[in-house]
Design a protein that fits this description.
Chains A, B: It comes from Pseudozyma flocculosa. Chains A, B: Pathway: Lipid metabolism; peroxisomal fatty acid beta-oxidation. The structure is a homodimer of 754-residue chains. The first copy, chain A, has 24 helices and eleven strands. With 754 residues, chain A is α+β, with helices and mostly antiparallel strands. In chain A, the strands form three sheets. In chain A, strands 1, 2, 3, 5, 6 and 9 form a six-stranded mixed sheet that branches. In chain A, strands 4-8-7 form a three-stranded antiparallel sheet, with no helix packed on it.
Chain lengths: 754, 754
Amino acid sequence: MAGPSYMDPKSTTYQPLSEPSGKWPAAKVTLPIPMGETAARTARDIEEARTKTAFDPSKIEEVIRDARIDNESRKRVMGTLSTDDVFGTWKKRMVHMNREQQMQMSHFACRRLLELAEKHDWTTHEVIEAAITLDLQSPVTIHWVAFVPVIFGQGSNEQIERWGNRAMNHEILGCYMQTELGHGTNVQGLETTATYDDASDSFILHSPTLTSTKWWAGGLGRTATHGVVQAQLIIHGKRYGPHLFFTPLRSLEDGSVLPGIVAGDIGPKTYAAFGGLDNGWARFDHFKIPRDNMLNRHAQVKKGGEYVKPPNDKLSYGGMIFIRSQMIDRTGWMLSRGITIALRYCLVRRQFRDPSSTDITDVERSVLSYPSTSRRLVPLLAKSYAYILAGRRMRTLYEDMAAKLESGDTELLYDVHVASSSLKAYCTKQALDGIEECRQALGGHGFSGYAGFTTLFPEQAPAVTYEGDNIVLASQVGRAMLKISGELDKDAKTPVANTSAFLRAIATPNAVPFQSPQSPQDWYRPEVYSAALALRAAQLVTDLRAEIAEGRKFGDLSFECIEVAKSHAEFVVDLWFSEAIKDDAEALGNAECGWLRKLVTLHALTALSRNMTPLVLPASGQGRNLAGYRNGQAVVAPESVVHLEKAIRDLVAEILPQSIGLSDAFGWLDWELGSSLGRKDGRVYEQLMADAESNPLNHDSPGPGIDNVGRYPYGSEKTGKHVVEWYKTEIGPLLRAAAKRSEDGGIRGDGSKL
Amino acid sequence: MAGPSYMDPKSTTYQPLSEPSGKWPAAKVTLPIPMGETAARTARDIEEARTKTAFDPSKIEEVIRDARIDNESRKRVMGTLSTDDVFGTWKKRMVHMNREQQMQMSHFACRRLLELAEKHDWTTHEVIEAAITLDLQSPVTIHWVAFVPVIFGQGSNEQIERWGNRAMNHEILGCYMQTELGHGTNVQGLETTATYDDASDSFILHSPTLTSTKWWAGGLGRTATHGVVQAQLIIHGKRYGPHLFFTPLRSLEDGSVLPGIVAGDIGPKTYAAFGGLDNGWARFDHFKIPRDNMLNRHAQVKKGGEYVKPPNDKLSYGGMIFIRSQMIDRTGWMLSRGITIALRYCLVRRQFRDPSSTDITDVERSVLSYPSTSRRLVPLLAKSYAYILAGRRMRTLYEDMAAKLESGDTELLYDVHVASSSLKAYCTKQALDGIEECRQALGGHGFSGYAGFTTLFPEQAPAVTYEGDNIVLASQVGRAMLKISGELDKDAKTPVANTSAFLRAIATPNAVPFQSPQSPQDWYRPEVYSAALALRAAQLVTDLRAEIAEGRKFGDLSFECIEVAKSHAEFVVDLWFSEAIKDDAEALGNAECGWLRKLVTLHALTALSRNMTPLVLPASGQGRNLAGYRNGQAVVAPESVVHLEKAIRDLVAEILPQSIGLSDAFGWLDWELGSSLGRKDGRVYEQLMADAESNPLNHDSPGPGIDNVGRYPYGSEKTGKHVVEWYKTEIGPLLRAAAKRSEDGGIRGDGSKL
């Protein structure tokens, strides 16, 4: 496609905005509209912004995109998908479908994805990345992320032999059935039972009450042929708690639910999220499964009903921690989509001339140039990188922990559990809020489906609840902080993980040395901002301990734990964010590292700015002083707060010219972003107009069948001429009835002479 | 319907959950499932909670629902709608439709609404309230709220004669076309032109560039027959700025767009919002309209082109301020929907026994009993009431101002402008965030479409941008604070409105007397919390002035203005919230007033808690001290902060038992809330199960045509037996292809013996 050199404000013919895709013509503006200066300059503006980039974005991209698959694989896979007949236009079409249509499409898409995978010999990880980038939430993707890992993680070698390969090969499609209508977070309270039956040497799965109905399992509603069920193990009248059981659900032959089971889809999700996924409900009516269907890598039941407990009852935690540890960088990537769109659009969008201008032909200011915009967006850029890179550290730490756990060594388990809980709770919520902040920064056009947030926010939304409700996780972090600080009380030399080392500041003076900054520049020093994060986290734990000392029960401190956990997470993210950059310094390069370190600084300073109260409040005794702080002494002096705001302001201004380059470095393809406002080339107005012209609602339907839903007939000669069918059935009659009521019998003619 | 007395945990047959509606049977659980204790007790729990209500919710309801229509009218209208063939099941069905279907339905619904209005002789206001409660965003509702008021407000008497009644009577359907592709907030930058043509004594409407295309106007896309266009007035080469012009758009006869105009729908909105509304784009190609189509109540153009400016150039502000002043209580009502659902569900939802319990049959704790829940939700209840009641005050103030303006008296204009800008910016954002907070408090089931948030959040989302972008409004508030405090600098006795009176504290010692609280109870005194709100707002303005004194330009202070405006709004909301209760004290009753005043207190204390830094930071000179505060002296002492948190905690605990009654007092019908989780009777699990059983995705389609979309066949014998058609076309082939690939030729049989 031609670059900005052709963009003549007087032109009334437009260059294509995309390649043709299957039956779809290339997108472009068709009506003969003079482009005008405002639309013409957007591409020049973003090109000029890129000339200021003082580093090589592709170096950063290569490093951060080297994750579960490397960047070259990623580009290869995305290249195939973006030019595919079905997937090239996937995101645009799905928005035009109702749920039934989306479900049908997502099943079809999974089949096609697997065909492509076979044709191009993609690895499992490449298939998963493809599904994630497509926002393809479907029974088959759930099979991959929620069912297969459980077989391999919780099944014995023999069970993996029986089921694992067949699952990998899609001979069966599975789902993971844990949550029930009445119980989610409290797994111990699940009501589904698996009762051992001596006579048949089997387990009887049963759903005894309304609230025991399995609920929410993705793929369960209409699709899965098999499943893993979490149920209360009962042997000879004794309860052993929740265990996992492999069960058939539907006939491979015709998809009908097996006798003794009833199941279905639980209904639409909020904000039209996950339309293509059949989250399901199911009930068991004394349904028999063989005894050796109980997943028995850890716990087992022998013939006759003898229960063999797992060598270490914490071994099964591994799966839960695994999932949480995988979520952290994902939330960073989701936020990075939002911030990429926001930075590009706010750069090219101009509104209001400088107040000192008197010439109405002066160009209006770029929205990104307003501090209210940059001060809100650039920190979100820092957060995106923070969660991506801290998330890499998290996954490495998990792998170290899991390796030790294999040989029964639980040394790292507790720390990884606490860190993953803390970061899961914190990052999912920050990313969700950040995504909406990005969308709101887009102003009016941010409300368009073409802004690219239609699935981004709704699909991030449940992350604050699943895999551990964030509020419950925050309490667990609070509890851990009390436990570890209690150990330090007994022996100040107790070894503690880096992620909790700030707790030493509670009882040991100068354990975290800190001088209140005397200037904005002081705040840029890691020994200052990281120490401030540490001391804030320590102060909040001190306050928590004081509440308990004053007689409050821990169970009543769940609100206080929210802030304790946030400050803990901000400390850990800061720590890991900078460590991750050091790890990759060679691959990144000097200039690249330099700018990323500025993002580390900005992330830390804005995290502090979020809540300065614990640091600026002078100590006032009653067990709330950090060690070494006298009554009346605050950690941070009032002048330092003013310096902090200036430090942030100046740093944002310094990073701002690099922000386009830094978001380019995420490497998102336009096709992946699915956003007219986030086009890399900045041609936002042309894209909005092309889509508005060719919006299916403005054209006759090309025909029945799902293949024709959501088709954009770019270049049609009929643009602007279509009248909707229901004009005749609804609007016409409404107007004529009104004319009848009118005192003078109504308007004559076509109404153009009123 | 029978009440909770029948709810036998052992029962396997269920009572209806609703009345039949047209062709729909009554909702109920059909499968023979033992109810169980968890599901049975929800209705008992909420009934018991209501016995604790220490006031009469209906008294509050009567007062707060006496707004644009009175409560009796409202109940009459809602009663008709909730039992109507179409509207009784409206909200449930819309979620199952794609956009084309929703658009068709919303046109049909408007026609039906008007038929019902005629049949039952509803007033205009009753029709508007009906549309709002249905979340019926359609071309006809936009006609009422965005087109008709402009004709009546900006048209001369003669123009009102020509168009006003025909508009009221629906002989024409209008839209309001202001925003363009390239300009929204900067109205002066609009590019559409209206050029006077002497020869024909007409105006030529023209869209000269791509970015001049009119964009976003509701109803424009596919429906409106006429419109009011904001365009740059040009006479004999001279520009006079944006003015309003009445124009035909479509033929009344067949709905085709008139020659010289091209128009269409702009595409889907984010989060599937406003599916039934055709926000549109349009372009004019030298389209002629008569000279007397320029709305000329204020400005006029005479034959020959003489421009007559309006007597007061601020007169046209009235319309903009009107719309903002109407929005405040509406945001409160939207938030009140969310909090009603959240309080009811969190009460009946139980998860985890008390940690001290050792008996697994002990009942689990109500989620609402966790401080992390109540501490977050009860303040949102206070905010709902605050915005509803402060919004009433806002509307009264607007009416006073408008009455004076009629006779040319602009005395109140400035204050109402500032207050409406401040509250619009603040309340819309607080409500939006609050709605999501309510949904997240629902845990896992909050992600279901049946939670009732599917349209609530998405349709509140654009409010932070339309009718004045919130960030821009915040800057306007900041500018006003500088202006007024500057006047006070010159003469400390300058009269200022109540809403800005806190500014006196900047320069006059003890203008706002305040003693730092010595106990939690101290914080409950209005002279303490209102003074703290005042002093915080004054401190933030002081900081803003200091930034300017240090040389920063106002145009670079847009970020700082955000917090200035928030603290201003919180001061004003507190002021008006308590005044509104005094105004209605007689009608409300003692007990009712007592509990509402506690909500006033809670609203103020949580507003303070949101940002205590300006109050706890000791003064440090350099022009940032409030009058009378020495260096090192903070407004609020550190102990007071601890007391504040305890004060909030204790107040939340005190109000909590009344929170069900207080949310009942909003008077929302279950049908209006459209939420399975927010049922007044608490029967949440039965409703979720009934809907999951009868979810259309789980049943054969009842037939073609839009009448059959989204139908729930409650009581069907086929529940749980349906296999989706695409199982044959997509899943079956996927599994068979996998079997072929398998090393052993695949699984034999139906897979139930794996």
